[in-house]
Amino acid sequence: MKKRVLIIDDDIDMCALLSRLLMKNGYEVEVSHSGLKGIAKCKETPFDIVLCDYRLGDKEGKDVLVAIKQMNPETIVFIITGYSDIKTAVEVIKLGAYDYITKPLIPDEVLNVLALALREPSPPQHSQAAEARKPEEKNALAPLSSNSNFMVGVSPVTKELYTQIDIVAPTAYSIILYGESGTGKEVIAKTIHDRSSRKDKPFIAMDCGTLSKELAGSELFGHVKGAFTGALADKEGHFELANGGTLFLDEVGNLSYDIQASLLRVIQERKFKRVGGNKEMSLDVRIIVASNENLQDAYRRGKFREDLYHRFNEFSINLPPLRNRKEDIPLFANFFLEKTNQEIGKQIEGFDDDVMSTFLQYSWPGNLREFRNVVRRAVLLTPSGKISASTLPWEIKNAPLITDTEQRISATTPGAAAPQQPVSKERDLKNAAAKAEYETIMSLLKEVNFNKKKAAEILNIDRKTLYNKIRNYEETRELN
Length: 480
Known about the structure:
alpha/beta; Sigma_54_int_dom_ATP-bd_1; five-stranded parallel sheet; transcription; Rossmann fold; Helicase, Ruva Protein, domain 3; 21 helices
């Protein structure tokens, strides 16, 4: 029986191309050009897979994702997004997306990831309760697949990080973890828990960034039946689930001021009540919180309670970004390769030298999550042997070229001696214009952090035209 796929994208050309590709490969395909119409189609009939663009005309892809997962939790949803939107990618996976696919789309990659998703058992629904009960099954932000299976690294900053962990883990201190998206804050929180006297007690993780103000109190403290509309049974909150162990609150700065006040009272009194309940329960929980913004700055701006900040800030740890852990990059590359080989049953042998060189030069804005996904993608696209540069995403392959362009610009600024460049034998106005246009596009993309939608708007062209200009220049350069 053919698998049914729904494409939700306001780009008509993109829908047509994807439809032809998938139908040619045996899928039954339907298309919607708006988020609302896509949701309506899912109400009418279930789909095996939904491919949804993140930026739609009427709704954001994450809102469509949430609506679809509420109606049909078993539906596999992929979000299509710009490769540099790593924060977006992290967010949609936490909301229940199976994975994300980056633009420009590569036909073989699309077919491979869909086939892999259909072969694997459906991942558990990403509800807060499910994550609370089985945190080890959560799609982690760093190389952790089980309690005894992760990689530490050997770089000086990594060693310093684990020195701090060893110092604070045996204590009962509350801890704030700071770090960019994808640096592995939950992994570090779990490591601290595993090295403490609470290691045999629960470790419960909660993502505060995805909670509405209405749901936050229920998720933290639980509720009793009838406490509010929809409260059909008693429910344990994350504090109750973590009692005796460790509670990890990710993106704690996103909690509303009212919830922060309730949280402060619970921490001070070490007692809590379920929402709508009268019974007080004693509490023994170590709290570790994480944020990618400075909470001290947040309370100075009035966004975060100062008294709650000081309750949390008994110890703080800054997680280094991957770009500052160069010595760890080859180790992580091989670690992710080994895990992906096991996951999809391949025997890819390693990386070409130029691929590893590119990994070392790239800035990794999405840190370990981005690195893991790049390696997984490359393994999918490599039939055998070693991973070559042709399997890397466009932004990564062109990162050294951006650096070279910047160096040329720097070398020709006033006061700098411009190096003598050899005269091209095939120089003509058409090639020179194409090269200048390409370098303008590349420079702008770097300024907007490779947000292609924003770059296209600034250049006053549509995204398809932008993709075509980049691809045409790349193909011309390869032919020359």
